Protein: TetR family transcriptional regulator
Amino acid sequence: MTSIDPTSTAAPALLQRPRRADALRNYEKILAAAREAFAQGGESTALEEIARRAEVGIGTLYRNFPNRQALLEALYLGEVEQVCRGAAELTATDPWGALEEWLVDRVAAYIATKQALAGQLLQYLDADAPLFATSREALWAAGEPLLRAAQEAGAVREDVTIVELLQLVVGIVKIPCSAEAQRERILRLALDGLRYGA
Structure:
C-alpha cells in the first residue's frame, strides 16, 4: 500500500493505474461503469454487466481487476483521491471558505458514498485493514493545509485538529435526516462553532 507523507500538500496517488493510454482508458471506463452499476443495482451486480456497460470484454475487466474485491478497492480509493484532489484545488484567498467548501461539498458527499462501498468491502476486509488506514491518512494529509491556513488567518480556533474535524463531519453526515438540505444546515451550524475562540 502507498505510504502517505503528511507534510505533502499534493493529493496522494493511492491507485496503481495502467501507464499505456489505451489501457488507462479501459481502466477508467470500467471504474465509471462499476460506479454507475453498483449505484443502480447494488453489490449483487455481476462483473459481466459492468464489462458490458464499459464496452470492454470480460477478459479486459479481469486483467485490470482480478476479482470483485479488487474492483471495490479501486472504486473506494478513487473516491478518496477525488476528495484529496479537491482540497489541493481550493484557493487560499479565503481560508475559511476553502475549508468549509471542502468539508461540506467534498467530504460530506464522499462519506455518503463511502458508507456503501465500505459496507461491501467489509465482507472481504477487517475494519482496521491497511486500505482504510491509508485512506484516513490521505484525507488527514489533504485537509491539514486547509485547516492550518484557516487557523493562521484567525478564522478557526487553534485547538481543533483535522482528525477531530473529520470525525465531526462523519458524525453529522450519519445523522438520519428527512432532507439533504437539513443535514447540510446542521453541518454548517456545527462548523460555524469552529470560528469562535476556546
